[in-house]
Each structure stands twice: as structure tokens, then as C-alpha cells.
Batch of 2 targets.
Target 1
Amino acid sequence: MIRVIALVCLAAVAVSVAGVPVRVGAAEPGGTLRVALTSDVVKLDPHRANDCFSTYVFDEIFDTLVALDDHLNFVPHVAESWQAAPDGTVWTFKIRKGITFSDGSPLTAKDVAFSFHRILDVPEAVSGKLSKVNMIAAVDVVDDSTVRFRLKRPYAPFLGAARQHITPQAVVERMGDEAFNRAPVGSGPFRLRAWRKGEQVTLVRNDRAWLKKPNLDSVVFRPIEDGTSRTLALLAGEVDMVDSLLPQMIDRVRSGGFTVIIKPNLFYQYLGFRQYASPYTNVKFRVMVQQAIDVDRLVATVYGRGGTRAYSPVEPGLWPRDEAAWKAATPKYDPARAKALFEELIKDGVMTKDTPIVVHVSQNTDTQKIGEIVVTSLKQIGVNATLKVSEWTAFLDNVINSKDGEIYTLGTSPAQPDPDAVYAWLFATASNNGGNILGLKAVDNKAVDDLIARAAATTDRRLREQLYARINQTVIFDQRYHVPLVYPNQIVGLSAKVHDPIPMPICGSWMVTSQHNTWMSR
Amino acid sequence: MAQFVARRIAFLIPTVLGVAFLVFLLLHLVPGDPVRVMAGADVSERAVQELRTKLGLNRPLLVQFGYYLLGLLHGDMGTSLRFDDTVTSLVLARFPATLELAAVSLALSLAAGIPLGVVAAFRVRSVWDAACTTVSLLGAAVPVFWLGILLAYLFGVVLKWLPITGRGGPLWTAAGWAHIVLPAVSLAVTQLAFTTRLVRDRMVEVLGMDYVRSARAKGLSEARVIYHHSLKNAMILIVANTGLQLGYLLGGSVLTETVFVWPGMGRLAVQAISGRDFPVVQGVTLAFAASFVLINMVVDMCYMWLDPRLRYA
């Protein structure tokens, strides 16, 4: 009998494309979903903060002009359609009719233009989002349901920039920024019920939601900073969903009848060579370092199931990816070969046996372990390597402003699911990361800069794919500016009562989309 | 007495000023550029400069300190960089929770520690004494967060008797009590150990005094000897210890509050540090330091009340 029930249960469980278990059957409306986040929600005004945890709440209260589906494709949302002029500098969006904000006022093209101006017209540090939309030269309200963006330059990944939250002009102007942050009004599936800063945000269903009627009555977000406490809160049934579990807790949580989803998180951790001094500027030196490190073991040791080995900066879920080719082009761990390269470098006069090699990491359990493994690996082939650990503030200051040649490790997440956000941020001389941190302003990087600009200027996806493949070949396999290390996973814990949630591989978690509508069983 | 209090309050001012200066320096002693960290790596250098100007960090150090002091005199500890609120309102919103937790822990540790210490002292070198000593040693040795996690796992996950996260409400409600039990117990255990040791040692000493022998010789009951003659004399040291304990409990709340997601100042400090919200870090540190100084003053006044000799000194 038990076996029969088990079989029936199994049959009733299907696994969706995103890897999230979905129970086939009618959703039960009602209930409260309690979510524990790693850090606190700092603002409720989407144009006044840019952190991951506030974005969880922005996404529930507000709608974005365009949205992403499960596969990170841009799909219509507030905009029902859009059109780019052939030269890529003018983008026109048709606004869906009949959307109202939770106070009953209609959402029009004016609100859309107003929302972008709230980012464009204030000092950069106020929103933290200017760099995402600074290609916009002007926003025109053509009529009530048409908005036109004129850009400073052709920009193919503009849909990523257009994915901004829409706030009601009349309400914001009436209340002022400060009051609006305390009592925001949006058109999303939920609206604010209560906010105890640093403690809890409570949302309730927005009865005017236009996309579909949300199944959940309410959603509660609570910060639980400590990883162990977060896990215990899930096990004790005090929360239903945890945004990030410690990798060592996975088995314990699963054995308790909970669901654990392990998935790549659009995050890339790498070892970089700052291009300010020899021997860091030498390609052979960089190959030597790569061959001295057993990256597979490093990933297994430091991350366990919390990470997947990386061969390129393009995270799983993004394009263009050619994992097999990348893997083949990556030099194998070979300490003997690394030692031979070291001797060649000495013979060539690039460095001596005693040249101090600095591995600089920020003070954090994972990065310090990475640093220790790299230093030990280098010492094993005879290199005079030392580890330098700095508190995060000092680390960031040093890598942005100093001109020290060194090896460092950093992690990064693309601001938008588009390869431009990956390569322009990491390898363009004009970006803080490429120019200052990696130090490409100290070397000739014109070829890469040109390729990045060309790839951003064309809307032809096939051509863009080819261009990004060439950029990847240059920076990773010809120049070897990075030793790609790992894509850390997001480990989400869920109570068995939660159905159809969508923990996205970018900041934010959407309860109600065109494909999903999270619900709770009683 | 009035003169003493006035003198102590006068002493308070330079102490708090000194603390304020140290706390103020915090922001400037941090290695690297805190403004850059606040702004984030993907913000341009110009924006970082704008932020620096907005925060007034481009002015000379002493001028900045002057403005900071001026603000403090008005009860203004600056504005949080992450939340739009003033630091004063954030600290005031969190202070009651911390005080509540510290007070309940203190009450627990005294209520259990004094009888345990008396029992141990009364039966010196007995099994009771050994048991009390061992328990108190263990209590002092156990790390607070480890004990907290263990209690949360046992009573929250395995037995499901008590809630393990957050504050349930005012203490006069059942939910309020249920939520405070585990954090208060885990915070009280270390203090309990100290109290037990202290009471035991002091009582052993007092019980060996001549006047205790006289009291017994008069034929007083053992209960009267202990409560009226011995414990009262041992009390002075315990009061002093209690004051220090309260200070320790306020500080020790950082770990306990983090483990049990208690919305107090300790957790506010942790949130502010990880969010690099320096004005809040300054504010919380100042509030902790000021309450420590105040508690010490109150302890001194209690001394005087308990020991008349000090009043005429």
C-alpha cells in the first residue's frame, strides 16, 4: 500500500525546466510565504537602492518595463511590444493598456519616462543604477501608451537596461522620495503591508494585480544573517524558504523532508593578473600559474557542492557558451610543466628564482582558502609566492587605486543577463574592473575594446555570438588575463509546502510571472 | 550623597567625550576608502567624490569632529547610509530589545546563581560543591554562540517546544516569553557560572568569620545565619559583579542576538558592520559605551547605599 502511495506521489511530482519541483494539480490559493534572506532590505524605493536583497522586494511590489523568463530571455511585461531602429539608437516601447497601480491610478507612458528620469537625473551614488542606463540620451513620451528612448550610441543589449521598475509619477511627486520609500505604491503582484526596518517586510496581495491573481495572500521577508540560524529556522518551520544554505547543511536539510535546489547563480570567481608590472604582464608567467594550480581540487576543497568549475567568464544560463571547446583549450594541471616554464622564465630574464609573487585576497573564508591554495601551489614549483590578505575595504581601495602588479581573486555578477555585461565590465579599459582593477589601462587593450564596442553596437545575434567568442578567445585563451575558477551555486532551501517558486539566477525572486504563480499547500 | 552623584556626573562628561572621539576616529582608522565601499565597485570615481562631499568627509578632521560633537549635543548621531533614518532613531528602536534580553538574562543568572553558590558554600568540599564548581566551570568555558545553536537545534528543531528566531512581542504576552527563553538562557549561562563562583567563594569566606560563629553560638537558626548575617555581607561584591555583568550582557548580546535573530542593538551592530554603515557602527558603539559608563555609576551609588562606610569616606 505504501509503495502504491509513493508511486502516486511520484507520478504527481514533475520537475520543471528550471529544476524546481512543481506539483501537478490545482494550486491552493491563500497562505503566507515566509522568506529568510542573507541580509536586510534597505530601501523599498527601486530607484534609491541597487542591492540584491532590496531587489527581492522591488520585484514583488513593482513591475519592470520588460521581464525575464526562466531561460533569461527578455519577454514583454509592462511593455507589450518594442521595436529598435535599424541603427540601434532608437528604441520604441508600446505600453500595455489597463495596468493600474495599487492606488487605482492608471500606469501610462508618462510614468515609464518618469521612472527612468528618477535614475538619470540624480547623482550616480543615489540610485547606484546610473551605469545601467547611462547610454540613454533622452526619453520621449510619444503618447499615453508609447515611450521612445534615444540612445547616445547603438546599444544592442538595451532590453537589459530597460528592465527597470516603474513608479507612479503622481504619487512620488505628491509624497516626496522619503515618504514614498516608506509607503511605496507599485503595480506588482503584492503591495506593502508593514516594514520594520532591518527586521521584516510584510507584503499582501495586490487585488489590482493585472498579470494574474497571485495565489499567496502574503509574503514576508526577514533577514537572518547567520547561515546556521537560517538553516535552523527552516528546519524548525519558522520560515518556508531560505535564499542561501551553507553547502555542508544540504544533506541534513534534505533528510528532514525539505527541498534543496542547487543551481548556478550567474556568479563568476576568478584569479586575475594585474597588468601593472612584470612578470604579471608576461603570458608565459600566467600560463605557468594556471598549470601550477589544480583548479578542480581547489573548487572541490573550497566550495564542495556549492560551486561548479568555470572555464570562462560566461556563466551557465548565459550565452554564448561552448563549454567543451573551453575545457579543451584550458591548460591541464601539470606541476612539472609549470616548473619547466618557471625555469624558462628565469632563463629569459623575466624573473628570478627569488622574485616575490604576491597573491592578494580579501578577508573572507572562501577567498582566503583560494589564496592559500594558490600560494602553496606556486611554492611547490619553487616560486617565491606570498599571500596578502586585506580587509574588504582596504582590498577594494587597493585594487581600484593602486598600480601594484599582483595576482588577485574576485567574484562578479553581470548587471544584466547579456554577454556585454560580462565582457565590458571585466575587460573594457573604460570600466573600473577592466581598466583599473585588472589594469588594462596600463597595456595595449585596443583590439579588445574595439571588439566589445562592435558587439554592443549590433543587434544581429549571430554576429554578436561570433564577436564574443573572439573576445573570449583573446582574453582567456590568448592573453590569459584570468584563470577562471568557479561558478558558485545558489543553494535554496524550501519547505515541502511551497510549490512553484522561482529562485532566479539573478538578484530577486519572482512569485508571480507569466509562467509561475507560487502557492502553499496546507 | 548628592555631592558624590554630582561629582560622578561631572566625571561622566569627559569619559563620554573621550569615547565619542575614539568612536569618531573609527571611520578614519578603517583601512582603505570606506566611501568607495559604500558606493560599490561599479560606481565611478566622480560619484565617490560626490558622496564624500555629501558626507562632509573632505573637511579637516577636527572640523568634522566639531560637527559630530555639535550633532551629539542635539541628540543627532548622523544618518544611516543604508536606511534613510537617523542613527538615533535606529538605536532607540533597538535599545529596548537589548535591554529586555539583558535584564531577563541577568535575572535568570542571579536567581539560579545565588542559591547554587550558597549551597556550594554551605557544603564546602562536598559532592554538591564539586557539582556546582564543575557546572560553573563548564558554563564559563562554553562559547555563547555554540550553546545558542545547540539550544536552538534541541528546543526548536528536534523538540519543537520553543521559537528560535525573533522577538515575540511584549514580555507580558505568552509569545513574548516563549521567544525570549532560549536567547536569555544561552546568554545567562556564562553569567550564571561567574555568579555561582563569586557567591560561593565570598560565602565560604564570610561563613568562617567570627561574627558568624557568634551568631551560631547565640543559637540562631541556620537559615537566619545564612540569610541575615552572611548573605547580606556577601552582597556588596555581588552587586558590583551584577553591574559589570549587565555591561557584559549588553556587549555579549552581539552573538546571541545574531544567532536568535533578536532585533536588538547587537544585531544592528552586525548588520551595520557587514553593510559598512559607519554612522550606525559609531552610534551603536557610543550607545554601548555610554550605557556601560552609566551602569558603573549606578553600581557605585548602590555600593554607598549598601555600605555606609563609603558614604563618609
Target 2
Amino acid sequence: MAKMTLEQKIQRALDIAEVQNAMSKHAYYHGVGYHLQELKDIWVKEDGGFAKTACFAQNHGYWVGIKRVKQYYGELNEKNRKTNLEMVSKLHPEVKNVKENEGVGSMIMHTLTTPIIEIAGDGKTAKGMWYSPGQVTEVGRDGKPMAMWMWEKYGADFVREDGKWKLWHIHMYSDFAVTPGKSWTDPAASGNPFSSGDTIERPPEMRPDIEKATYKEWSPTTVPQLTAMPEPYYTFSETFSYGP
Amino acid sequence: MALTLLRRTHFHVYRIFKVGWDDKWVDQFANIDSVGGVPIPDDLKPDGPATDDYPYRPDTVVQLVPVPPEPYETWDKTFSF
């Protein structure tokens, strides 16, 4: 890689901070279920040049294109917030079934640690990877809240769009989820009911566009996988993608 | 070159939940203060009531609090924590 000028090094440092800020915004928006707001603020534009190749991925597949990401990550979440409120309202009649109560009982924290962020030499794209220890609190089918510790890794690609760093691909690699106070090695207490759909109905049209086992949760018979880490690169064609 | 030191002037801790490691915060339906903690002497009690205080409860909606900082030019153009 060519030797960088002082100005280029300063720009690189600024870009790394801005990429981290964008990813941190994802964590805060996700934490309160404001997925549609997140999509509008920090994801690539619906009418932009990266819309068709945007991607949201979990252990079992990819949703491709910003419209599909919006359907799955945004609109399905909105629908679930409404459904959850209906259930909670039945259990707690004092919680009225009105719009401002949508999201009741839910709370998510996917913190971001151990970052590796690389900015492309051409300054057009960036890659990042994080550990994400956290918790997921959701409303179960019976309307009662469910609590889980959840540990994941994130891999994400960013593009500079209209002068700002925007999420292009995000891949959530789930390692384990466990009931508080239990061991994740206990099969009865572990497993990710949120991503497997035990608590949240996932209609057929919301299945991944590319169904593929991209990553395996921990199990006694699973060999740990090293998720690809960002390495210095000049242009995106020279590196790998966290998308499909 | 002049070096400007930035010092912390406001520090707001937003409590969310506090439970024993083997407890579920979703069972903590009652007042979060009932969980206990270090008693605060009278002369060190807060000067005013907590603001933006939204500890988790299963019957409430979590809020985007605090809101993420946005780029700003001078202090009078942004909000205070």
C-alpha cells in the first residue's frame, strides 16, 4: 500500500471514528426497536447505487436488497411490536393498545466491543467487525416477557454515500443465547428462540433470500470458526464481503 | 501548538436494570430501588430529582434515551446531558 500523507492519515482516523459512530447508532436504534429510523439514518439509500446489493444476514441466511432488509428488519419488527402490545394489553389491561405503547416489554442491548475497522485505500468503502455481548428482552407468545443473555459477533461493510458512511452489509454471527442464571452448555437453557422463530412468527415471505448456514451457534460438537477479519485493502474488489 | 484539554462537565448515568446474576430482570416488576444498593448519605443526595429515568419494566416502552450525539459547531447548538 502506498505511503500515506499526513492529511490522508488524518482523514483515515476521522473515517474510522465515523464508521464506529454509525455502528454505535445501530446499537442504540436496535436497542429500542427503532429499526425503520435506523434504516433511514445509517443504511444505504433505497434509491441509491448500493440499494440492490445491501444485505442483512444472520446465521441461517441473507436478505438481499435494501427493500428486503426494510421488510425483514424494519417492517416485520413493526408488526411484531404491534402483536406484542396486543398480548401485553391482554395481560395488563392498564397498558392501552395505542401506538405510543408499541414496543412495550422489549429491550435489547447488543453492545459493541473489540473493534477492527479498516478503511479502503480509495476511501469509498470500509469494513468492521465487533464482538457483541448483550441481552435480549422480548415478549413471548403468552404475553409475558422473556430474558436472554446473547453473545454475537458483527461483521459489516460500509460505503461512503453522499459524504457519509452508511451500512451496506451487516452479518450477525450468533454464538449463544441463554436464560439468565443458566449455563449456555445446558441444552435446556441455551438456544436462540428469537432468531429461530420460536417466539416471533416469521411468515414464509420473510425467510432469507439466500438460505444458507453461514455460521453455527456454539454446541458441544461445534468447532469454533474464525470469522473473517477486516484486513487492509485498497478497493472493495480486493477484499471479501460480509454480504453474500 | 496549543493543546486544549477537554474535561468532563456533565455525566448522566441512565439506569436500566440491576439484578443478581441468576435473576431475570423481567421479574423485576416492582420498583428498581427495592433491589438495594449503597445507601446515600443525606449530604450527598442529588440536588434534584432524576430526569429521563426509564428503568426497565415489562409494562413500559423503552425510550431512545439518551439520544445519540450529532455533529455540532458550538455548545449552544446542541443539547445537554
